Amino acid sequence: MVMLEVERKFIEERRNELLQQYGGKFLVIKGEEVTGAYDTMDEALQGAASKHGLESVLIRRPVDVDQEVSVPALMLGILSANLPDSDKRTG
């Protein structure tokens, strides 16, 4: 099964209904459920991270069904590449 296949199918099949209900908002979709609707991508990313943690979700506007966005956890600030005490230099 392709990652997020259920979510993609959900938004494609219900595009018109979702457009009527949410307009051009960015939707966070998990399974066959809209778990959040936001005005900006940043708000959607923050909402998705707080509600779903590291679980995979689809974030898309119904008007942009054919457009994909992939954001690594590092960009969300969920994970950090900085190690503890990384500012201390050993000599």
Cα radius of gyration in angstroms? 16 Å
Instruction: Estimate what percentage of residues fall within beta strands.
Output: 15-25%
Class from secondary-structure proportions: alpha+beta
Largest sheet: 3 strands, antiparallel
Low-confidence stretches: 86-91
User: Within the largest sheet, what's the order of strands?
Assistant: 2-1-3
H-E order: HHEEHEH
- From the N-terminal CA to the C-terminal CA, the straight-line distance is 51 Å
Note the overall shape.
Answer: flat
Structure summary, number of beta strands: 3
Mean pLDDT across the residues is 80
Structure, described:
- 36% of the residues lie in helices and 15% in strands.
- It is an alpha+beta fold.
- It has a three-stranded antiparallel β-sheet with strand order 2-1-3, with helices on both faces.
- The longest helix is centred in the middle third of the chain and has 12 residues, at 41-52.
- It starts with a helix and ends in a 15-residue tail after the last helix.
In short:
This protein has a domain at 5-65. Helix content is 36%, strand content 15%. The protein has helices at 5-13, 15-22, 41-52, 73-76, and strands at 26-30, 33-38, 58-60.
